[in-house]
Amino acid sequence: MPDNKEQYFDILIAGAGFAGSLTALILHNQGFKVCVVEKGRHPRFAIGESSTPIADMQLRDIAVKYNLPWLHDFSRYGSWQQSHPEIVCGIKRGFSFFKHHPGQDFTTDANHKNELLVAASVDDIQSDTNWMRSDVDAFLVSKVQEAGISYFDLTEIVSAKRNSEWEFNCICPEGAMVIYAGFYIDATGGGFLLEKLTGVKTSSDSFLTDSFTVFSHFHGIARWTEMLKDANIPTADFPYDPDNSALHQILDEGWIWMLRFNDQRTSFGFVLSCKEQSLKGLQTAEIWDAMLAKYPAIKNILKDATLAAEPGKIIQSARLQRKVDRCFGPGWAVLPHTAGFVDPLFSSGIAHSISGIQKLVLNP
Ligand SMILES: Cc1cc2nc3c(=O)[nH]c(=O)nc-3n(C[C@H](O)[C@H](O)[C@H](O)COP(=O)(O)OP(=O)(O)OC[C@H]3O[C@@H](n4cnc5c(N)ncnc54)[C@H](O)[C@@H]3O)c2cc1C
User: Fold this and answer.
1) Does domain 5-85+132-204+323-360 have CATH number 3.50.50.60?
2) What is the topology classification, in CATH, of domain 90-130+211-316?
3) What residues pair up with 282 in beta bridges, in sequence order?
4) Looking at ligand 1, which residue's alpha carbon is closest to its atom 48?
């Protein structure tokens, strides 16, 4: 152990997304001396927002198992609103799908052709939620700090070596800093740091799925249910209002997610096939415009929409599919969002992350 015991930790967690922070809180409660290193500063924009019944069940589970009782409130819309109305979220009653055809307005029939609504909760109180990740992640970091866990933000791990323990060379706002730790958990949500520190590579080669996304947060996105009503499309027998769900518009080239929040912001993004010839060589704004030109009903949804301050622009991702060659090694392990990603359809990310955390920490 180095002389400077202040900078020695049992476990260093890189990345303070919700998963890194939850891991830190659990390990701290289990008696480990933990630190969290975040390259950015909260609140910061993040994608990955809709929870599911499994994710919420897991939240309730870890709230009890790892002595984080306040976490329980975030597992249902009703208790979230009662305990933390200031942390923005939205109601998510289920998964809704509407199929569009290029060049045509949305159409259906008395049997709800082109529509699929999958209810996941009985009412709004019991409902799953769309998380405003910037708010949720910032709140969890405040819990990390409240617990007395060492938290270094705006800090970059430049290099590291490991003999019996890790020695991390970091750059923080005050200058260079060395952190020593027995174990390293990568919660950065990508493979860059892992490769830099361990040489373990991330690749996309073995995936059949080949997609990318263009997305942002908006104000003023029209309510889909109102648009259906305006077009005299029956909605009275819907099990819930599709705007209060993870609303998916299905296209020939991929699909759109629409996740509405209480404060009138909406997360909206296209997931598109990288193989789509009509989009090859286009810039982000051109892809956006090309998709709206093809689908009149989608263009109409966005008619009065303006970009929200954060992120304030339309973002285009690289290919989404990736996985690391190894998930753990001597003195290190990764959380699921670092380990890999396939596709956001069905919103499995939050649940994957929580189950990964449970595999990594001590079982009570
Ligand atoms: C387009 C898209 C849509 C998605 N939609 C959903 C959804 O609806 N529901 C769902 O459950 N999941 C969804 N996901 C998956 C979801 O985003 C992830 O499961 C979730 O973000 C994982 O959280 P995390 O805390 O592990 O990682 P992240 O949210 O990626 O957080 C990583 C943190 O690490 C920090 N960091 C990065 N690099 C470094 C570094 N070198 N050093 C220090 N810190 C670093 C970042 O600043 C960030 O704060 C979606 C994913 C994508 C790509």
Assistant:
1) yes
2) D-Amino Acid Oxidase; Chain A, domain 2 (3.30.9)
3) none
4) 17
